[in-house]
Amino acid sequence: MGIILIILGLPFFLSGSIGLIRLPDIYNRLHALTKADNVGLGFILLGLTLQADNLTSLFKLFFIWILVLIASSASCHLIARSAIRKGIKPWSRQ
Amino acid sequence: MVPPMNIMLAGFDIILIASLLWLAWNILATDDIFKAVVLFISFSLLMALCWVRLHAPDVAMAEAAIGAGLTGPLFLAALRRMKRIHKSERRMDLEEKRPDQQQTAGPASGRFNPVLLMLILLLACLTGLLAVVSGILPVQTEGLGNLVADHLPRSGVTSPVTAVLLNFRGYDTLLEIMVLLVAVIGVWSLNPAPMPRQTMDTSPVQVSLVRLLAPVMTLVAFYLVWQGAARVGGAFQGGAVLGGAGVLLLVTNFTWLHAIPSRPLRLGLTLGPTVFLGIAVWCMISNGTLLAYPESSAGSLILVIETACALSIGISLTALFAGGRPNDSLSE
Distance (Å, rounded) from C-alpha B316 to C-alpha A10? Predict the structure, then answer.
């Protein structure tokens, strides 16, 4: 069960990485990266908690997920903000 | 038969080494310093993975925290300052010699660089020499691992890494802490810390994030120190996390941060070295040998030293990032 959840999480990371390479501008890339990776990490950590052998490590894994969620959303916001400050225009189809 | 897990791990190792080499080359080859710094941060993270693969989680943690978490921001800060200086210089240049603007193409534009070729040749020679030497010298497979394991019960801690760092080779660690202190003294003697421009407004998200994270990071830092006695962790890892918290506070431009008087800062900076040195000297007075802790209290002594050192390391790293002495210098 844990293995299945972990494997389920991997495609999200893959799509996030593909998005990072393929998408046209910084805002799209941030979108792809943070959204996809957070879900992927959620699945992987959920899989790992099922394999955890005590309550302490389960709590730690959950704590890691929360911290990564907070950090990645905040850093996404900060990168986007500084991009706007620098005057990078969002990409649009002409 | 080789189990498939081993083949996968070997493949992973090969990819890891290849990307390390590729990253290292790109760091050296790129013209864009910003790109080089960002690549350097990724290099440190991959290097941390390497240490994990070598079963050295302690080193991995220190590498990730110091290499990626602190050296990266230090480089970025230096880069920002360099750009500012560069910009003002260029402006002066433009005002002075506006007529001959065409001559801006530097000598570095040539594709072929003899210095680089020389460097590569030298490196190749060195690598060859190392290969020859490693072929000649007998391989010591045993190492000191068994020796450490034999004496571990006497060290007062159960983590072999901490036992070596703080007890068996405590002398080295004492000097490392001193080096850090000397580095901060060096930076402080150069110039006062640059005051942030008042107009710079910080995102409210960042402010609340740092308010949330700084206490959590402090907790994690002391958890690492506490855990160092038995498992992965210790003063350097804890101190690096503490330093990270300090850097976050600095970049968020809290105004109260600049109102901290310098006396407690100085006390905090010297606390670790003083406690370490004090215990070392006390050991010498009572046992006749520097840093020979009495066996019964070795564990608690190590914990005291590590806590004090973690605090000082955290403050030192933050001070290095701030890049100058506090503005209310005691001497002035």
Answer: 40
Q: What type of residue is B191? A: N
Cβ <8 Å between B205 and A78: yes
Count other C-beta atoms under 10 Å from residue B37's C-beta: 19
Structure tokens at B9: 């791990």
- Specify whether the CB–CB gap between A65 and A5 falls below 8 A: no
d(CA B180, CA B317) in angstroms, rounded, equals 8
To test the contact with chain B by mutation, choose from A67, A73, A85 the residue with the greatest count of B C-beta atoms within 10 A, namely A67
B134 burial via Cβ count (<10 Å: 0-12, 13-18, 19+): exposed
Question: What CA–CA distance (Å, rounded) separates B150 from B128?
Answer: 37
Distance, CA of B299 to CA of B158 (rounded, Å): 9
Rounded Cα distance between B318 and B213, Å, is 16
- pTM of the full structure: 0.69
Tens digits of pLDDT across chain B (332 residues): 567 778 888 888 899 899 999 999 988 888 888 888 888 988 988 998 888 888 887 788 888 888 877 788 888 888 887 877 777 766 665 555 554 444 444 444 455 677 788 888 888 888 888 888 777 776 666 667 777 777 777 777 777 777 777 777 778 888 888 888 988 888 888 877 776 655 566 778 888 888 888 888 888 888 888 887 777 777 888 888 888 888 888 888 777 777 777 888 888 888 988 898 888 888 888 877 777 777 777 778 888 888 898 999 898 888 888 877 777 655 54
CA distance A66 to chain B (A): 12
Across the interface, do B205 and A77 touch by the CB < 8 Å criterion? yes
